[in-house]
Amino acid sequence: MLYTAHEMQRAMLASMGTMAQSTSEWLLSPANPASYIAAGPAVARALEVFAHANATRGKPDFNLAETIVNGRSVAVTEEILLRKPFGQLKHFSRAVS
Prior knowledge:
Elements: H1 2-28, H2 39-54, E1 66-69, E2 72-83, E3 88-94
Antiparallel strand pairs: 1-2, 2-3
């Protein structure tokens, strides 16, 4: 249920983020007279913050192939214990040395 609500919110705000970015660029354009008054750039920056906060980002890779234990390098394996639509529970185990 929570994931469905999150996806619905993301889908509804996707176009708003694009519109905010476009409006921000328009407000900062030298051809626009509003860019020369104090409120123009301030509103543009606020819209940029909204557009950036609304942007989707991918999941980062851990890239953890090995680690140092007692001064020696040991291999690390990544195992997914639980998969959910919203995320994964991962377990990292090191090789016994």
